[in-house]
Amino acid sequence: MPPETLTDVAAEVVGCRRCPRLVAWREESAAKPPARFAGERYWARPLPGFGDPAARVLVVGLAPAAHGGNRTGRLFTGDRSGDFLFASLHRTGFASQPTSTSAGDGLTPAGAYIAAVVRCAPPDNKPAPDERAACLPYLVRELRLLSEVRVVVGLGSFAWDGSIRAIAGLGHRSTPRPEFGHLAEARLGPYTLLGSYHPSQQNTFTGRLTPPMLDAVMTRARDLAGQAGNALDRK
Asked: Which CATH number characterizes residue 119's domain?
């Protein structure tokens, strides 16, 4: 049997129906879109990670948004969180453009791979513990295949915790368990885990997370990964 690839994992993710509540919610969201998206054809399936297979930085989010990634078919695409994230990734040299509007918009991550702990949009953005447990093996498998990754950025406490669990799934554990915080750092085996507040509207609209704050995290990730300058210049 040939070795597993990221394409293999992506195909398995897209066909997943392990969590009945999440399957129902992602499909209901597609069937009853808000007026601004009326008439659009929704992806309404789980979302695999995407980006540079030679990435040295893995960016991990919570889950797709019901009318963002669940609509467009790509993580952090078509919603305000993605707008905020990719603007920062572009400024810090990890993305070819500052916007992420559709799966075919020409965006190319460089030196970074984008993933999530849970791959279906959850009600109220709150996956249940059993849903996280069912989905986490996909992140473990992606991380195993991303052999060049040295830095994992957890966007929010849920992604921080999920990243710790995924890294532990590869045999790298830390005692005591690292505590989440913005710009928190923890060494876990060959990886450095970096924390950032999630670029959700409740954080960005209130000023809890500002563009310079997220840029500081991604600049630190680039420095730790040994990616001096703009990753796009080396493509």
From this structure: 3.40.470.10
E-strand spans in 29-122?
50-51, 57-61, 112-116
Extract the tokens encoding 23.
């399957």
Instruction: List, as one string, the DSSP characters of 164-191.
Output: HHHHHHTT---SSPPPP-TT-EEEETTE
Domain count, the chain: 1
* 1 occurs within a structural domain: no
Half-sphere exposure of 41 (CA within 13 A, CB side): 1
* Amino acid code (one letter) for 210: T
Does residue 126 lie within any of the structural domains? yes
Token pair for 233: 């210049």
Alpha carbons 38 and 129: distance in angstroms, whole number:
32
Question: Which residues fall within 8 angstroms of residue 99, CB to CB, at 6 or more apart?
Answer: 83, 86, 87, 105, 107
Q: What pLDDT, in 10s, does the model give residues 27-84?
A: 999 999 999 999 999 999 999 999 999 999 999 999 999 999 999 999 999 999 999 9
